[in-house]
Every structure is written in structure tokens, then in C-alpha cells.
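Input (structure):
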């Protein structure tokens, strides 16, 4: 079974990485107009976690891979379309909406506050770019992207060039392993394996140094390019952990 979900979350401002895991697994996910949602972990040598790979794997073909590998930010309309949220309520109406929710004890009352989600910067890739990111291998994806003149292709190329090659290859494999209908438990277990190994065998420490500590934005990744990452290395990142495997217990009884 699944873990019990928070009933309602209200999301505004930047909701990145772990914030997605906290907010976007709820039953009713409400966005304000300032919300920008992203899973940028590959850029710091990690992989999407806290259940983020489940949301990515459930998105439309190509969309989840695009979001997970590039770390692109979604505006409210894009986040709803991609399955990361359910509805938009203008932030000016949040006080009234929350009061109504508390009084009624029923999320159905929120529907009267719904409004069309704004199309701010941060949309989803167009069909041409989706098809590229729906490639069956990371090598094919990169080959197609290199030759593409699709809208957004230059930005996608830049994002992948800046990210950890090992993280890209690992995240790509995770999404393909989980698709098309993963459980939250399956996603968390796979993420735990990759994150557990990120310090000793991955690029996480170097990514944190380059992006957050020294802020030179010049990480020295373990591999020069994704093509240099072997299938054996990816398999090792995602292999079962034996006695250290994540064990989830149902604490709802």
C-alpha cells in the first residue's frame, strides 16, 4: 500500500527538489501564481528523490525525462499539466479558501476558488522536444538533441552539459525502470539506493562544492560526458543494498 497522503498542500514561490517531495504527493495540490516547481538535482550531482521520480515517470512521454534531466522550472499551468499539482487558486484568495476548508472539513469547497492557471515563464517542452526526450536510450536522446533546432533545444543542451554525466545516466535509467505506473514505495526504494551511493561513488560532494560552497560553477565531474558512463556504473548505483536496503513500514495502524 501507499503512505497516507496529506490532504491539501498550498504551494507558492520556489518548490524545488525536496520541496516537491513534501508538497506534490498530497491528494489536493493547490498552486499560487508565484509557484515555480523543479527537480534540479542532476545539476548538483544527485538524482531526483523524495518520490520525485514517481511523479516524473507518470508524466507524459518525454515530459518527465525532460524535467528530471534538465531541472527546468514549471509555471503553475505547466505543473498542473505535468501532474505535479491539481489546481490554481490566486494567492489573494488563500486566506478565504483555507478558512472555508477548515470550516467545512471537505476539500471540495476549494473548487469555488479555482481559477485558470497563469502561463508564466516555465512551460513544458513542445512536441518536437518531447519526442527527443522520449528516446529509448540516453545516447539516442543526446544525439537527437545535438542536431535539433526545436524550440528550447539550446537551453536543454546547456542544462545537460552543465549537469553531472553520472547523475544524468542514473536518473534516465531510474525513470525507464519505474515507468509507466510506479508505486511510491518502488520510487523511494530506487532513489534511496542512488542517494545512498551518491557520496562514495557519485558526484554529489563535487556538485555541492561547485554550486553551493565555492560557487565557482565549475564542477569536476567523474566523467567528461554521459557517453563515458558505463552501464555497469549505472547498474552499480541502482543495485540492491542488501542489509542496508530501505525498508518501509506501515505506521498507520
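Output (sequence):
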Amino acid at each position: 500500500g501507499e503512505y497516507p497522503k496529506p490532504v491539501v498542500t498550498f504551494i507558492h514561490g520556489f518548490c524545488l527538489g525536496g520541496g516537491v517531495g513534501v508538497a506534490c504527493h498530497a491528494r489536493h495540490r493547490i498552486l499560487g501564481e508565484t509557484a515555480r516547481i523543479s527537480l534540479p538535482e542532476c545539476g548538483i550531482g544527485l538524482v531526483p528523490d523524495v518520490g520525485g521520480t514517481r511523479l516524473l515517470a507518470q508524466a507524459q512521454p518525454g515530459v518527465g525525462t525532460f524535467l528530471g534531466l534538465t531541472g527546468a522550472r514549471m509555471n503553475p499551468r505547466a505543473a498542473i499539466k505535468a501532474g505535479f499539482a491539481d489546481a490554481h487558486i490566486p494567492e489573494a484568495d488563500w486566506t478565504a479558501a483555507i478558512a472555508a476548508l477548515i470550516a467545512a472539513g471537505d476539500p471540495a469547497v476549494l473548487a469555488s476558488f479555482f481559477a485558470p492557471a497563469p502561463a508564466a515563464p516555465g512551460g513544458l517542452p513542445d512536441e518536437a522536444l518531447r519526442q527527443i526526450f522520449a528516446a529509448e536510450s540516453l545516447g539516442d536522446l543526446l544525439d537527437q538533441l545535438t542536431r535539433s533546432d526545436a524550440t528550447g533545444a539550446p537551453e536543454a543542451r546547456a542544462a545537460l552539459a552543465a549537469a553531472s554525466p553520472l547523475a544524468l545516466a542514473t536518473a534516465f535509467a531510474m525513470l525507464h525502470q519505474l515507468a509507466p505506473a510506479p508505486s511510491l514505495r518502488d520510487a523511494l526504494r530506487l532513489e534511496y539506493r542512488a542517494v545512498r551511493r551518491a557520496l562514495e561513488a557519485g558526484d554529489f560532494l563535487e556538485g555541492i562544492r561547485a554550486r553551493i560552497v565555492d560557487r565557482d560553477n565549475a564542477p569536476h565531474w567523474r566523467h567528461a560526458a554521459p557517453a563515458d558512463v558505463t552501464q555497469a556504473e549505472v547498474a552499480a548505483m541502482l543495485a540492491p543494498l542488501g542489509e542496508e536496503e530501505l525498508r518501509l513500514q506501515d505506521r498507520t495502524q
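Notes: The chain has a mean pLDDT of 94. Strands lie at 8-11, 14-16, 28-31, 36-38, 87-88.
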